[in-house]
Q: What sequence folds into this?
């Protein structure tokens, strides 16, 4: 079938939730993908900050092949080894003590919120409210839509589940003001991803953590986008000197195989048998992929490399900023980077880049986001910058 026919068929068959680029991707390798016309693209989207080790990474492919031949799925009624191995790896390398596996980010956050509500019932006189922030993103379920402090996600679905209070980000006083006897926890992204790569002041998370400790409420970090090496440490909160009571993971955890998780400190691990579950959560297949991913990232000190290549990338973007006066800001940590413009030109830039073989993400009408696989090299960054520079020159002309 020709490219246009695939895309016409999609228009007929799907609920209209996606605004896709006119490209049908059929293959990927490392930081590159190919379309059905044989055109090659350098990929700075990385499966939406998911393909940690690049497309079809050999260590993950091997782990999947081996596990698929051995045991794909059982049920959580039984012990399985890949799940326990992955749990041990994540717990040994984090400040958390216990884990629950699921299939996506939204599902991980739902579980974290349920755990916080259990905690509220048991230890905080039935407190159930969770404070979250404007500009946050926590997922697409109804409850996570309510947690996500962005009206464009909330308005179409009102009335929303209650129990979430949205306050300003990077404002610890706003969290203190919103805290009542009903509050059981605060849930934050260490750096807001979908909100546009918003980096808080150095003191923000520490202040919120102290407040949570003072009030005895739970400090929950949504590290779904920022975790697993993305920002230059295994988890982003480590750069801010804080320790969450609960942390959620998904995106980069399985190199593209769907898996999510939430982890908790011992004192917050208040679930009892029957309180929560997930049919597919923690399948041996998904856990084998995630284990291979996390092991590779740790064994190869990928977070340190991400920090270096991210600095290099941002320095190159800063020099573009000096060259083009319509670029207003470069911001980011590790390989979670945004480029801000003084007008709504992100879509136009992304389309021209596409034509030149570069995939970038439009995080806001005025903002591009770069979240490539963690294996990207400085040479590949140079290639991307050169395409971006050509694009910006052609638009200025
Ligand atoms: C992507 C994302 C989610 C939702 O993850 P899904 O797997 O799409 O459900 C939640 N929180 C953050 C910070 C995210 O970036």
A:
């Amino acid at each position: 079938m020709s490219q246009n026919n695939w895309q016409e068929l999609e228009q007929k068959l799907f609920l209209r939730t996606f605004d896709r680029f006119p490209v049908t991707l059929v293959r990927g390798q490392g930081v590159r993908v190919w379309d059905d016309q044989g055109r090659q693209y350098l990929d700075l989207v990385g499966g939406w900050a998911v393909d940690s080790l690049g497309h079809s990474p050999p260590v993950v492919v091997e782990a999947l092949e081996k596990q698929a031949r051995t045991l794909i799925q059982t049920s959580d009624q039984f012990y399985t080894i890949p799940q326990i191995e992955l749990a041990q790896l994540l717990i040994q390398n984090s400040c958390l003590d216990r884990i629950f596996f699921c299939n996506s980010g939204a599902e991980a956050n739902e579980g974290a919120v349920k755990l916080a509500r259990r905690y509220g019932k048991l230890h905080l006189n039935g407190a159930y409210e969770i404070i979250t922030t404007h500009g946050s993103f926590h997922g697409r379920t109804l409850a996570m839509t309510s947690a996500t402090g962005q009206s464009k996600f909330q308005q179409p679905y009102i009335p929303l589940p209650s129990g979430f209070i949205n306050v300003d980000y990077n404002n610890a006083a706003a969290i203190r003001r919103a805290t009542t006897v009903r509050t059981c926890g605060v849930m934050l992204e260490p750096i807001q991803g979908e909100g546009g790569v918003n980096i808080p002041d150095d003191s923000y998370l520490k202040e919120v953590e102290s407040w949570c400790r003072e009030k005895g409420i739970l400090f929950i970090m949504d590290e779904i986008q920022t975790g697993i090496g993305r920002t230059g440490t295994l988890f982003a909160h480590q750069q801010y000197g804080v320790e969450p009571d609960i942390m959620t993971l998904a995106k980069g955890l399985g190199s593209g195989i769907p898996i999510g998780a939430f982890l908790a400190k011992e004192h917050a691990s208040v679930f009892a048998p029957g309180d929560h579950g997930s049919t597919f959560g923690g399948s041996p297949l998904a856990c084998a992929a995630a284990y291979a991913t996390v092991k590779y990232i740790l064994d190869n000190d990928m977070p340190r490399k991400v920090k270096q290549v991210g600095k290099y990338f941002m320095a190159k973007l800063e020099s573009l900023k000096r060259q083009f006066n319509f670029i207003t800001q470069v911001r980011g940590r590790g390989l979670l980077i945004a480029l801000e413009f003084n007008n709504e030109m992100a879509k136009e830039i992304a389309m021209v880049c596409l034509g030149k073989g570069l995939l970038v993400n439009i995080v806001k009408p005025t903002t591009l986001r770069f979240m490539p696989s963690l294996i990207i090299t400085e040479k590949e960054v140079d290639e991307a910058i050169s395409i971006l520079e050509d694009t910006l020159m052609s638009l200025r002309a």
